[in-house]
Amino acid sequence: MSFSLTAAEAADARPVTIRRPRASRWEPAGNIRELAQYADLFRTLTEHRIRVRYKQSILGFGWAILQPLSMMLIFTLVFSRITHMPTEGIPYALFAYSGLLLWSFISTSLSNSTNALVGHGQLITKVYFPREILPLSYVAAGLFDLLVGGVVLLAILAWYGRPITFHLLFAIPVIGTAALLTIAIAFVASALQVRFRDIGIAVPLILYLWMFSTPIAYPLSQVPAKYRTIFEMNPLTGLIEGFRDVILRNHAPSFALLAVPLLTAAVLLPIAYALFKRAEATMADII
């Protein structure tokens, strides 16, 4: 006995493709290939972050430098005029701004990316795309702010008559390492925020404590010798000192200090990405 399908039944028999997260198993190559397929979405979201941040604002891109610049003024008043903090012959305003510029990128990126998934709950529950694009877009927007602030840093260098040498190129790997470390922490914080909303409340406090336990307002040389090793184990110490080495001291960053953030990023990033993709399958149900 033979059966024939009607036109309606034949149409219903067309193959159906179901898109779902790859979180059921860890496939780094597949995850990265899939992420590359959504490059346009990543670019669109990043541009949206930048436009929304400065839309209908009087200062415009000036807000990108307002935070490090205002903190530089406060730090200069307190640590230079009042406590007379030594800075190895570097003008304190320049010393403080160089550290605050990199720190502002890290802190702003982490603050915004922590709430990236929760803040886009309606999008996550309706459309599938690699969820890591959301925190990544905030970090990319933070890099744009860092670029704008870097132009101001060059202007301050010129104001103080500091030379700009080829060592400035070493800032690229330093910033790249800072970005990778920030992405790793953003993956973990944003994924945990979906289940535990306390993370969003705790992150500002953690960042505040982290800033003052990092030699940003003071040089590493002023840390007592018995605490120096502890401070050097802080990955931000190597990043801030390395950034100042290439910008202010005109020599390559110290590998001994930069090794800590490099190793931390190399170990933490794949672990954080694996945990993020593992949690991705249930995000839409929980959020």
Characteristics:
mainly alpha; globular; 287 residues; single chain
Counting DSSP E segments of at least 2 residues, the number of strands comes to 0
Helix fraction, binned, reads over 70%
Number of helices: 12
What class would the helix/strand composition place it in? mainly alpha
Strand-and-helix sequence, N→C? HHHHHHHHHHHH
Largest sheet: none
User: How many domains would you count in the coordinates?
Assistant: 1
Runs with pLDDT <50, length 5+?
none
Shape: globular
Distance between the termini: 52 Å
- Using the CA coordinates, give the radius of gyration: 23 Å
pLDDT average, as an integer? 86
Percent of residues in beta strands? under 5%
What does this structure look like?
The protein is built from 12 helices and no strands. It is mainly α and 287 residues long. It has one domain (26-286). Helix 4 (63-82) crosses helix 5 (92-114). The radius of gyration is 23 Å and the shape is globular. The termini are far apart.
